[in-house]
Amino acid sequence: xxxxWWPIGLIILSSVGYQVGLKEVSTGMDPFVALVVTYLVAxxxxxxxxxxxGTGEAGWKKDIFTINPAALGLGAAIVGIELGNVxxxxxxxxxxxxxxxxxxLIVLALMVMGTLLYGEKITPRKILGVVISMAGIAAxxxx
Length: 143
Known about the structure:
Helices cover 83% and strands 0% of the residues. It has 143 residues and is mainly alpha-helical. Helix 1 (2-25) packs across helix 4 (69-90) and helix 5 (95-118) runs antiparallel to helix 6 (124-142). The protein is globular, with a radius of gyration of 19 Å. The N and C termini lie far apart (39 Å). The model has no long low-confidence stretch (mean pLDDT 89).
């Protein structure tokens, strides 16, 4: 059971730290300077974990050739997410609504993408979930 749930716990803890950090960064620091520092720290931590795993030099030399275009696209997408979040908070969004609104709309977009690109099924239950989520977003943003 732990193996199944610990990644969710990590995501929750990291996401809370992420949103709080973004809110603080948005109050005066240049967003691009913040991103440079953020990615230097993220790269350092990622490199450290990669090498601590025991992959070693031989693994690194082999692994560097397995990088595919998706990793490059992911990097560009992450920059867009980071900048969008910083500017969202600069525009006046609050921590307790910004995340739920943006993620609710992301879920809707992912349902469409999952259907179009991966043939995933949209069931009546999923549609009901989206309707309820959109109603919640409307209540949060309009209320």
